[in-house]
Structure formats: structure tokens, C-alpha cells
Amino acid sequence: xxxxxxxxxTHEAHQNPAHLHHFATAQQQKDAASLGMWLFLVTEVMFxxxxxxxxxxxxxxxxxxxxxxxxxxxxxxxxxxTAVLICSSLTVAMAVRCAQVxxxxxxxxxxxxxxxxxxxxxxxxGIEYREKFVxxxxxxxxxxxxxxxxxxxxxxxxxxxxxxxxFSLYFAMTGMHALHMIIGVGLFAFLTYQAWKGAYSxxxxxxxxxxxxxWHFVDIVWIYLFPLLYLIDRHP
Amino acid sequence: MATAVxxxxxxxxxxxxxxxxxxxxxxxxxKRIALLYLAGITFFFFIGGxxxxxxxxxxxxxxxxxxxxxxxxxxFTMHGQVMIFFFLIPAVPAVLGxxxxxxxxxxxDLAFPRINLLSWYLYIIAGxxxxxxxxxxxxxxxxxFYVPLSTEFLKTNVITAAVAVFISGFSSIFTGLNFIVxxxxxxxxxxxxxxxxxxVWAHYATSIIQVLGTPVVAIAIVLVALERLFHLGIFNPTLxxxxxxxxxxxWFYSHPAVYIMIVPGMGIVSEVVCCFSRKRIFGYQAMxxxxxxxxxxxxxxxxxxxxxxxxxxxxxxxxxxxxxxxAVPSAIKVxxxxxxxxxxxxxxxxxxxxxxxxxxxxxxxxxxxxFLAALGIDIHVTDTYFVVAHFHYxxxxxxxxxxxxxxxxxxxxxSGRMYPEGWGRLAALIVFIGFNLTFFPQFxxxxxxxxxxxxxxxxxxxxxxxxxxxTAGATILAVGYLLPMVYFLWSMRxxxxxxxxxxxxxxxxxxxxSPPSTFNFDEQPVVTWEAYNYDEIKGEVPVAQ
Lengths: 236, 545
Known about the structure:
The complex is a heterodimer. Chain A is an all-alpha fold. Chain A has seven helices and two strands. In chain A, helix 2 crosses helix 3 (about 65-70) and helix 2 (about 25-60) packs antiparallel against helix 6. Chain A is elongated, with a radius of gyration of 22 Å. Residues about 1-15 of chain A have low confidence and may be disordered. By secondary structure, chain B is mainly α. Chain B has one domain: Cytochrome C Oxidase, Chain A, CATH 1.20.210.10. Chain B is about 65% helix and about 0% strand. Chain B is built from 16 helices and no strands. The radius of gyration of chain B is 23 Å and the shape is globular. In chain B, about 55% of the residues are buried. The model of chain B has no long low-confidence stretch (mean pLDDT about 95). The interface between A and B is large, with 48 and 50 residues.
């Protein structure tokens, strides 16, 4: 039977202009924002969960076709992109750290670096998408053709319909992920501007922290997408 | 324009603090946002009701003579989509929950007032898109968007309807998220979890469903739109995609969505029953846990909508059994409301009449739900009017009754005026009679084999008499819903000024003036009492005027 945070806190003087009047304390406000962000990430997990569920069903049904189709992806570009995203995770983490210790300029630099890495990811993803169009690996097009064999069965060509299911999932999942990246880049552009104006301080950096949580989430989605889409049938 | 224009001697309230259109459209006050929602929700209620009346008029005669078959398909589709996504799901949380939750827990506002306003704008954008869909020729997928009908075959406005539902889903998610954070972080000193009014518990349970369920239907609908636009093949059977997968994703949300609609109503009924019985709620903790139980078990029963869709018989058995489990917390609630009334000093004001209606009709709707959870009976009555009658007993007999109970109960607090009690009781009676006359014949029709979604039953003219009764009932029901609309508006100008606590009720919302001031409480309230402490409150409900 715990009391709410308001129970233990008295009205302190509202020194911070970012402190909204309906919260008793700045700490209560920060806790609320943080809980809200985590709940939002839960909704995101459920959102992507629907597509992962579809992937699971079809990977089980069309095991060989999925393996064959995954081989047509450009694994080098996918690997580079994975590295790019992991680096961006580091730079956003550094940005939060700088906010905590009050290094304004370094925070701006790290945020700009993150934006650059995010854009690099999207650029490489664009090259991959273009390749798919050139190779006629786009589902729903009359020209769709995938010239692969079922792994382990060199005489069995891949089922063209089932391969299209794979590429439908590929475009839906990576496309939704890319959309989240674009939103994230926009978010960081706004935060960079705010940070450059000096809106954040060691006392108040909640927006930075929450945007970074979002960015880490988007990274983690990719960490699952990369093996499921690129690595399921690679052998040395 | 937006200046304070409080006359000397007049108390400043959230209503008269500022005037002008800007002071409403840019407000972050949860009470004003609740009223913004009230306007939108009332509008869509009457749009959806208009479609329902057209459906009932078509079925007055066996021949399909009033509208074309395609038009009829559009009518029941848009009736469903408007009523579910733009009335039933947002109504109680976004209007009454928005207004009352911060006050009931002793807070100045929701945790995220601007997100609250954003969610209203999302609702309005989604509503505008829905209106556009209607005016541009409508949509005829059925409210469920089943594939491949919606992706491969129909030429109607599926995309705009899908986008409208998608956006309204985000509005719903943000409301739920806001409530969860508010209830966790904004409670007044002494307002422990075990002292929360059940209305707040009910919204907590509802919000969990909104946050966990809505994203799943969102992605399912996005994939439908992508299949239509770019011919992706995730559900397309000609590519090896599985239409049943769509149904699983759709019902994973849309069954729990039923509880998004009914659970807040259970919260209202708990408040009303206690007040007009002058008693503490019977089994407070069981009631709170039953609400959470419904939310949790509700996530495990979705495939009972798919018994005849071709799922395996073992899956059907499991989902049948799990569906029975929902009856346990639901029964706890019905028995505890009844036990609360036992030996209470009951008075029969309008909110209590609606609460009586709720308990009886919800019980009938719930029990017929058990018929449908039983595999054998379900196969007999699948896609008949029995199903239609069952869910209207829950949605209209349950949720709308509770909404009306809540609107009457808290109208004095919201508007600062009393509604005319005599007219209120009359309307409650008319609604009850009209409702049963509309939907009880549909149980019989369905059991006799009349399918739903048919616009012509000229091969079975023996169904006409029951259909005539149902249409007559719908007309009476329409009168019952128009009446409160009229006298609520009338009371805003001519109603008697409401005292702070017209029902002599328990709860923080009755300790502040009617209507409240902008920040609800002048001083931080400290709670030292349990919920529903009617044994400590002297006096009865004041006798109606």
C-alpha cells in the first residue's frame, strides 16, 4: 500500500521553467514522463509484434522458400547498417550523459552525429531497396521473379508465390522500421535545436532521455530484423 | 476575446474562466477536453444511430425495397464503424473518465494535458476522414475489414476508412497511456490503491487493454492498406498468405475492445449503485480484481469469433473453455452489485434506473455470450440475429445504459445545473422499453435462423412480425435518446443551479464546487477515508424535485 509520490513531497518552489504547474515536484513530473515513455514503447512492441507473429507463421510454413529468398538480400549492406545503428546507439547514450553532466556543446555534437548515422542508415537502406526493384524482387509486381533454389535441394526451385510472401514481410517490416528511423531523425533535429538554444540542463533533460529511449527501441527492432531477414540461411 | 469575464460576485469556474472559440480549441484543461469529446461523441452517436434506423426501416418489409443491396452493405458497415470506433470505445473514458479521473484521485489535471488535447485532435481528424468516407460513397467491408474481400475485391473507400480507424486507434492509445500514468503518479496523499473509487480501477483496466491491444489492430489495418495499395501479399491466399492470420490479429484487439467499451460502464454502475443504496460496495477488492481479471482473460478468448472460420477443433475447444472463464469475474460483479443493494435504502433517481437497466441487460447479454462460447450452439447461431442481439445487449443495453447513468449522475458536477428529474426518469423508462422491444425479438429471429447482414428476407416472410416489433422498438429507442439530448441542453440554461453534492454522495469529486474551478482543488486534498464511506455520511439522497 504505497502512497503516490505526491504524498511524500511538499510543494517546492517552482524554479525550473519547464516544471508544469500540475505536478507537485519536478521529480514527479520526470517520473510521469518516464513511465509514459516506457508505456509508449510497450505499444510499439505490440505494433511490431503483429508483424513478427506473421513472420513466425510463414517462416514455419514456407521454411525453405524463406531461406532461399533471404539469400538474395545484400548481406554486406545489412551488416554495415547494423554497425551504423550500433554506433548511433553509442552516440545517443553519450548525448544523454552530456546532458546529465551539463556539457551543452558536446551534447549538440553527439546529437548531430546521431542524425548523421541515422541518415546513413536510411541511405544504405535506400540502395538496398533500389537493388530489389532492379532485380524484380518486389512482391505484387507481374515481373516478380526470384532465381533461387530451396536450400539443400538444388533441383527444387523456390516457390514464386511464397517468396513474395517473404518479400512482403521484408518490405513491411523494414519499411515500418525505416519510418520509425525517419521520425527519430526528425525528433533529434528538434532536440538539437533546443539543446543548441540551451533548453536542457542537468536538472531538466527529460525530452533527451525519452527520445533516446525511443531510438534504442528502434535499434533493438533492427537487431531482431537483421538475423530474421538476412541470416536465416547463411553458411560458411 | 479570451479574457476572464467573470462578473463581480460570480465564482470563477472552468466554464466561465475564459470565453471564445480559441479558449476551447487550445485548452489543456481535462474538463474542457472532456466537453470537446462530448460534442464529437454525441455527433457520431446520432450519425451511427441514423444508419441503424435506415437498417431497421429496410427490414420492416421482407422485400429489399427501401435501399439497394450494396447500399445496405454500406449502411451496416458504417453503422458498425461509426458506433464502435467513434462512440463506444471513446465515449466513457474520453468524456467521463477525462473529466473525473483527475478529480477522483485529487489531482489538478491528467499527467499529460497536451497529449490529452492531441488525442482529441486525432479523434476529430479520424472522424473527419470517416465523414469523408461516408460522403464519398461509403465503405462496405463490414466493420471487420475481413481480407481478401477488403484487399482484393471491393472498389469502395476502404483506404480512407482504414486510415480513419488507424488514427482513432492512436487517439485511444494516448488516452489510455495518459490514464495509466495519471493513476500511477498523480494520486493525492492518502489516496492509496485500495481507496481508489472503482470508476478509477475500471479505467485503469480499460487503459491496459487500450495500450496492449490497439497497436495490434493498427498494424493489421496498416497491412490491409499496404496490400490494397502496393499488392503486398501477407494475407493474400493466392500467394500463400493466410486470411485467418488477419482475423487472428484483428480479433486479438477487437475482442478485448468489447471490454474497452463495457468495463468503464461497470465503473459507473459501481459508483451509482453505492450512492443510491447508501452503502459501501460489497467486496471492494474482489470488484477491483474482477475488473483486472476481465482485462487479462479478455486477451485470451479472441478466436471464439472464428469457430466456423476454419481453425482447428483443438484450438476451438481451448478458446471455448477460456471464453467461459470471462464469466467468472463478470458474475462477481453482478452478484456484488446485487449484494450492495441488499438491505440498502434504495431510491430511484434517473442514474439508478439506468444502473438497474445495465445490471439486468448486461446479465442477459453475458449469459447469451456463454451460449455463443459453447461450440455446438455457436455453430447453429453463427452469423444470425442471435449474435446481433447478444452484442447489442452488451453494447447498448450495457454500455450505453451505463453511459447514460454516468451522464445523469455527474451532469450537475459537469454543468453546474440539475437536469429535470421527471423527464430523466421518463426517458430512462422509454429507453428500457425501446431497447428490449428492439433487440429481444432478434434473439428469437436468430434462433429461428434469420442471418445477419441480409437486406431481403422475402423467402422467409414469417420473420416479418418480429422484424416489425424490432423496428418499432428502434423508433421508441430513438425518442428515448433524443429526450436527454433536449433536456440536457435545456438545463444548461434553465436548469436549477446544482449544489456541490446533490446526491449526498461519497468521493472527492463531490467535495468541490459544481462546476469545478480550473485547477479542481484550491488546496491539495489529503484522503483519510476508504471509498464509498456511506456509513459515515449522514443523510439520504435529497428527494427529487
